[in-house]
Amino acid sequence: MNVALLLILIVLMICIGGSRGVISIMALLGNVIVFFISVYLMKYCNLYVIAFFDIVFMCLLTLIYQNGVNIKTISSLIAVISVSLLLMVLSSVMGRLGNMGGYNEFELYEDTLMNLSVNIKLNLPDVSICMLVLGVVGALIDIAVAVTSSIHEVRMNNEKQEESEFIKTSLRLGKSIFGSTINTLWFACIGESLLMFLLFRKYNYSFVTLINSKAFFDMAATILLSASGCALVVPAAICSYVYVSRYMKKNAE
Amino acid sequence: MKEILFCKKNLIFTIVYVLMAAGILIFISNDAFLYKDEIGIVTHREITDRIKQKSPNMKTEKYYVQTLNVTILNGKYKGKEVMVENCYSKSEVKTVKYTLGDEVFLKVSDKENMLSGSITGFKRDTVVAAIALIFVYCVVLVAGMRGALFVAASIINVAILYLGLDFYARGTDILPICYVSVILFTIISLVCISGFNKSTIISIASVWLVIILVAVIYKIVLSMSEQPDYIMLEYVSGPNDLNKLFFTEVIMGCLGAVMDVAVSVSETSCELLRENKELKTSDYIKSMRELGADVMGTMVNILFYSYFCATVPMILVQMKNKYKLNFIFRFDLPFEVTRFLTGSIGIVLTIPVTAFVSWLVLYKILGKRKCTE
Lengths: 253, 373
Description:
- The structure holds two protein chains of two kinds.
- Chain A is an all-alpha fold.
- Chain A has two domains: 1-41, no CATH class; 46-112 and 123-252, no CATH class.
- Chain A is 81% helix and 0% strand.
- Chain A has helices at 2-17, 19-41, 47-67, 71-98, 111-114, 124-157, 163-177, 182-192, 194-202, 207-212, 214-252.
- In chain A, helix 1 crosses helix 2, helix 3 (47-67) packs parallel to helix 6 and helix 6 packs across helix 7 (163-177).
- Chain B has ten helices and five strands.
- Chain B is of the alpha+beta class.
- In chain B, 38% of the residues are buried.
- Chain B folds into two domains: 35-123, CATH 2.40.50; 173-365, no CATH class.
- Chain B has a five-stranded antiparallel β-sheet, with no helix packed on it.
- At the A-B interface, helix 1, helix 2, helix 4, helix 6 and helix 7 of A face helix 3, helix 4, helix 5, helix 6 and helix 7 of B.
């Protein structure tokens, strides 16, 4: 089944994207390989180090490799890395406070997981936190590129604009860009946890039990923190664009 | 940074919001009196014992036993202290490590004036509220009214989902519920995010078309290949319509990505026609293909990461248990792969479908007249 779907996808991508469709397929393949290699490495190395390198690598692949080195990609790079670090700190604080990660109350009794040893010498809450951040980096990159390229356009068309005026325009533009990827994350999460919602219903969770339950917390934390990251990357991209352009002006003089 | 944070409007908003959030959080962190179950707070902890157990790769895993002093916050034992023993492993897979200040649900028993208790759960309501407040703050600060509308749309969507599942639990078939909620989700999310105008109507129509196409493709492929083993799905609770439930999951997961792509394609095509009223159809197709190639690559990557990252903890547990990679691929990942592939097919299909619908509406029906007003 999956093979047939994969073939359909590849044919469609080539039909619609032409030669650039082929490039997208290669980039996707690169990401898949990097992803599974890094999962494999997580058995041996420090998780946070791997996650950080993964983020940097993804940025380099999508930003520098596909779009070249210029003020837009450099400022997106800075924005994405700083927001994902911030998100990592935020989610590890929240994750610790709310005891995120590990098996939730349904997984504890699931047949497929029952006979697995849990002595894995790997802190599972840390894994969840890294994965939360890694899961949203793709969206962060997308939004950052959209923001920097549209404000770059503004700058090019109107070079004499005052900086404060420019920032105001950029913020207005940023508003319309926010929301262009957020539905993807939101509904992907709903789609994944539909069966879990049914379990909540089946066991007659009351509102109080629901918001204190681990399964709900893991899901809600993932989606809400990812969405916050998507929002924060807009001002971060504008800031880093402004600073990078100031720095470049200084160097040029 | 200065300009963003310290502009007068944002500063006032931040101050008001932080005060309000602090009030809410202080209330929730002291709401033990609202609960019927006993709630305690960890006031002292000490590691009293260390144990070692064999792990599957023949190394040892450390276990710790901690003795906790828990002060009860509500009920008839309010103010009393119980001692609880808790054992946790370094990996914290099934076990939990408690730290000072953690609030927990307790089961207290009173035998001959000796209180003893055991922990039954973790109290997470304060953290959930904190995360929700952070989310609302970020979204509203960055996107203003649009952000607030997005939050509203999300709440309404969750309510619709809840209603739908309620109908399902009472015996309605899941498929009609799925179709109705797809229709409602699309209208609510798109109207809230981009307002009510022609490009929104184009997006809504294209989303519906694409979802129908994806559903047809999915059904055809499913009927031609062998049935997947739905029992291996996570969180299966035993109903016998798992194939329909999984179909619903796939469609829902697809919907978000399709909506995002449809919005950006239809907004761009309206923009194109507004700027250049005499645009030829061939040029239009050319620029749509350019846009499609741009959008496609990034969106497919986003979908890949958001689906697969969620499964990594389980993959790691299995890998640590010396499961072979091809075993994991055959039994655990197929569902994620199906979701991801169907979603990606949806994304790719959205580009020509939306471009075609916009062309139809803007060229044929409206006759190249003004398109966004």
